[in-house]
Structures are given as structure tokens and as C-alpha cells.
Amino acid sequence: MNFIVSAFLAKSAAVSSGGVPVGLIVTLVIIAALVIAIAVAVYKIKRGIRQISRTMFGTDSFAQGINNQKMEMSETPRSLQAMTSLCLPRIQRDFPEFDYEDYKQKAETVLRSYMNSIEEKNPELLYSECSTALKDNVKGIIADLSNRGYAQSYDDIVIHRTEISRYTKDGATARILFVSSVGSYTYTTDSSGGVVYGSRDMKTQSVYETELVYIQNVDMVANGSEGLGLNCPNCGAPIKNLGQKFCEYCGTGITEINIRAWKFSSVREQTTTTRPY
Q1: At what angle do helices 2-16 and 22-57 cross, to 10 degrees?
Q2: Most CB within 10 Å of its CB: which of 151, 191, 208, 216?
Q3: Which domain, by its residues, includes 190?
Q4: 193 plus 148 within the same structural domain
């Protein structure tokens, strides 16, 4: 660089006798040197970025490499915190009749029906073995979507794997948490059809939690007492309350009713992203 500047200065001394200002020539030389230096620096930076991109992504384009990585992640199922091998023996000890494969399939059915009912904005599409609390939760999501003029879509749903993540038992109440690795094109659109969340073109890989609870099933008593035979053994009067100790008509002592059943109580996505509804 010093050689170039010296050469130009020597030439400027010769030219200056013809009337060209020496200061102007010096300025042009300096500008030319800066342009060359910047060009060399840019070239080195670009070459460095290409080398980094090749190392990280196997391509010269850094942007293309990042996009390729996103596409790869969108097709890679999320890992699960699987505790089935530890939890299942405890569950089967407490509930010998518990059929793991059956309830795992039901958990996946609940998950699909949950997405379908939200997408169609119809809570009646929710699986029959869901609790009232879960049904109310779905109704609330549907109402929020409708109030905002939004629609939720779950396209090409694939449930890769389902496992038990946690089992707890507190007195007469037991809880089993299923986790499912799920891939789908998940996106929310506004009234004009524009996507406000998610993507139509790139899959979302998520983990969903579906909780199964063993609880006293009040609905069975309320909706089908005669089918359950809940009557006084002495006078035949109906037994109206689960905790009833004596017949309110004849006073005969009765065994406390204890009707319990498994119900799916909640569905939740493991995510740190805030949805727009």
C-alpha cells in the first residue's frame, strides 16, 4: 500500500508542473487506497462467512444454511421425557385392571379430538371420556378464537410417539400424565385468511401433555342412577347423594356409594411461544 501511495505522489509531482493541484492528486490517491482496502476487507469477510457456513451447514450461503436447518428441525420429532418403565409397574400395582396400551391409544384419540374440535369450533367433537373441565377449556378457546375473528388449523397431524411422563396418587385420586411427540402444520389465520401465527409451509414439532385422572364420577350418578341400581336395599327408594349413609325414607343404613372412573382432564402444549388467543 505504501508503495502505491509513493508511486502516485511521485507522479503527482510531475503532473503538478502542468497545472494540476498536488493536493487533489494526493486526495484521490488516498481515496483509491481506502477503496482498495475496503474491497479487500469485504472479500476476506465474505470468504470467512462462506467458510463458517460450509463448516456449520455444508453450504456457501449462510442464509440458506439457516433455512435448511429450520427445515430439518421442522421434520425432526421432539424428544420425550419418557418414564413409562418406572411409572407403569406402580400404576398396575395400584390398578391391576389398568390397560396401558388401551389408555395410550385413548390419550392419542383425545389429543386428535382436541385439535379437531378447536379447528372445527365444535366442542361436541371432543372425545367422550374427557372431563367437564376439559370440555369447558375447549369451549373457552373456541369462544376466544371467534371473538377475535381467528381460525386455528392443524394439518397433516402425525403423532410420532406417546409415553407416560408422571404418575402421582394422593389418597383416592390418581393422575397419569401422557406426553406425545406431535408434528403438524399448525397455524392461526385472521378473518382475511392471513397467517398471524405458525406457518402453512413449515411443520411444527411439539410435545403435548394429556392428563388422565382417576376421580369420583358424579356424572354417572346424575345421568343414569337407575342403570347403576342406586336404590335403598330395604324400601327401594332412590339414593340421591354419593355420601348418603341412611335412606331418607325408611332410615335403613346403606353402604356409601363409591363410583370412580378414569377421565382425561386436560391437554396442554409444552411451549414458550405465546399464541394470539
Answers
A1: 160
A2: 208
A3: 78-270
A4: yes
